[in-house]
Write the structure tokens for this entry.
Amino acid sequence: MEVEYLISIAFLEANSNELNKFEMMVLKWFLFFQMVPALFGEGTLSTQNVDYGIAFTPDEKTAYVVRHSGEWGGRNNPPSKIYKYVMENHVWNYKGLADFSDNTSEWSDSGVFIAPDGKKAYFTSNRPYKGKLGEDDSDIWMMEKSEQGWESPRPVNEVNSSGYEASPVTDRNGNLYFTSIRPEGIGLGDIYISIKKEDGSFTKPKLLPGDVNSEFGEWNLIISPSADWIIFESSGRESGLTSYGDLYLSFLGKDGKWQKPRHLTEINTEGSDLNPRILSSSGSLVFASTKKMSNKGSDFYTIQLSELGIDFYK
């Protein structure tokens, strides 16, 4: 990123005779903000709390934010809940707790994701249900959209296990990708895929084929609508800037296997970087970051996908 920026500035300065000082300044600032992640939703979506998960409806007029009022990485934090925001007059306006997230309970809700067609939504929760009494390990929940709004969520039993499930996302075909800690895994946490059946249920989860999973931890993720690239958080890798986790990019190879991931130096920081999401209308990425390990909160940042080497509109 830094090299591309310097090359662009050098080109501008070489042609500075055709630009006045004001025009030069404007172009330099434009290039800088195109290449550096910008704070997203300051004072609304990004607050003084721990804002670490986000999802958007397909029209990008409604956002759901995962938040708690404790400290990032702290022990005995209050439960995470999911909050609703609506874009009105170009401003994100707070609408309170999402109707599927219970603020009166001790259970945490997180990992919210809206399917590309907007007809289904997923999140994770450690709330109790038949067969589970409510534990530290979270499970995947799903709900469908009706004319009245979101229907009651239900656990996705065909993919949930006795272990830990998190970060459910789908491609445009409805196939489910998620993170889990279970005996057949090869690392601290791994990414799995479950294919959507004709009846809407899912096949038995399988480890994502290729080089994404490792002996370390693979966590929060986003899959492109066409399932040809994936951005995910991983912790413990030698290339990581911190032990808490950085974001990585992998493309799907012609052999149907995921290629060696690239460490996203353009956006990773000295803090924890996680929970990527896509804004299709602008071809941009939104993700959460603490920026530094000493920070007690986390906020959302955005950058153009093209700056990461992704041609979103191809």
